[in-house]
Design goal:
Low-confidence stretches: 191-198
Shape: globular
Number of strands: 19
Radius of gyration: 23 Å
Largest sheet: 7 strands, mixed
């Protein structure tokens, strides 16, 4: 089976690196070229580097470095590593780098597999509601370090991690390469500032440009590993549930079911405004996001959606979402077991709104929820 992957909103999957702003420089074609630091340094007199403030992490130090590179580097004499499209003025924010191979951006197969596995786990939980209810009724927070791990052990046995690891190895997902990138600004919604709810500008992100499409096999089932898996765990009850996902069609159905549930929180947040957030917010991109969310349709049973990469909020999230949807009283009373750790100026997460999207990508005049892709059967023209 061949699929068509459509990038609906900018996708960012981090390489783990952050690039300084002076590595990027515009040209006459609306491109921001990215250069190697060693190529830039050849233009800087050594004495000028020694004169820099020692505390280069400070604002003043950073401004001095930017000024130094702007004054001395002749970017026109250099060959860039790659370019991105960018519609804004020169900037001073760091840039979070997109994963690439030979400077070509791609979605790793591991990211696709992670999204698929979350969907499969969510569907398995749906098949075990009564057993989960029994577990939660007897749950003792004081004697349990991880609710998620304890629940999976209760449902599938002490060796569930080994079982799921070997099962996951049977699903082989392709890296998917794309052609163009954009440089996105980002806002984090619902930041506290002088007792007002405001959006706050974060780093810039290299992103796989939306509106790109690729033909791909997406994933395949490794028949040899499948046989090993089924033989090794033939006496396990969970095998009856997992073996149906060796059928590609059933994986697509699982992804549809999971996404249909997950997207409801963002719809409540942006469209219905059930939590009155936008009455107090300065965020101006809500209408664009509402228009996008309204285009998500589940009418065609051969199509599914995935969210991939930065700011898409998912792992062990499938368990959290399931418990929130089906056992809200337990979820609310024990929210500390599900909430992420609060960092810096971030607002404390709230049980009713989690897991809504908080990071918004911005490009030109458009606002996007990050990481939406559509998967559908590929049809020859």
């Amino acid at each position: 089976m061949t699929y068509k992957i459509s990038i609906l909103t900018p996708v960012h999957i981090s390489s783990g690196n952050k690039n300084a702003c002076f590595l990027y420089h515009p040209d006459k074609n609306d491109h921001f070229n990215c250069y190697r630091i060693e190529d830039l340094l050849q233009f800087i007199p050594p004495q000028k580097l020694l004169e820099l403030q020692p505390d280069n992490a400070s604002n003043n130090g950073k401004k001095d470095i930017i000024k130094l590179f702007n004054n001395y580097v002749n970017y026109n004499q250099l060959k860039p590593q790659y370019f991105l499209f960018y519609k804004f003025k020169p900037f001073s924010k760091d840039v979070t780098e997109q994963v690439k191979s030979l400077n070509k951006p791609y979605i790793p197969g591991s990211s696709i597999k992670g999204a698929i596995m979350n969907a499969i786990i969510f569907n398995l939980l749906n098949d075990n509601k009564e057993k989960i209810k029994e577990f939660l009724n007897n749950f003792d927070k004081r004697s349990t370090k991880s609710l998620q791990k304890s629940l999976m052990t209760y449902l599938f046995g002490k060796d569930f991690e080994e079982i799921f690891k070997l099962f996951s190895s049977c699903i082989c997902c392709e890296d998917i390469f794309f052609d163009t990138m954009i440089l996105c600004d980002s806002d984090r919604l619902n930041m506290k500032n002088n007792n007002r709810n405001q959006s706050q500008e974060f780093n810039k992100f290299e992103c796989i440009d939306n509106l790109q499409e690729k033909k791909t096999n997406l994933f395949m089932i490794d028949q040899t590993r499948q046989k090993v898996f089924l033989n090794k765990y033939s006496n396990k009850e969970i095998i009856k549930k997992l073996r149906i996902f060796f059928n590609k069609r059933n994986i697509i159905i699982a992804c549809r079911n999971y996404f249909r549930t997950v997207i409801k929180d963002d719809k409540k947040y942006f469209i219905e405004d059930q939590f009155d957030y936008f009455k107090e917010s300065d965020f101006e991109g809500r209408d664009q996001i509402i228009n996008f969310l309204n285009t998500i349709s589940f009418d065609n049973k051969d199509i599914c959606y995935l969210r991939i990469g930065n700011s898409t909020n998912y792992f062990y999230k499938s368990i959290s979402i399931f418990i929130k949807k089906n056992f809200y009283e337990f979820y609310d009373n024990n929210f500390s077991l599900f909430a992420p750790i609060r960092l810096g100026k971030k607002n404390s997460p709230k049980a009713d709104t989690m897991p809504k999207t908080r990071i918004i990508f911005k490009y030109d005049s458009e606002c996007y929820l990050p990481g939406f892709i559509k998967v559908e059967p590929y049809e020859e023209n």
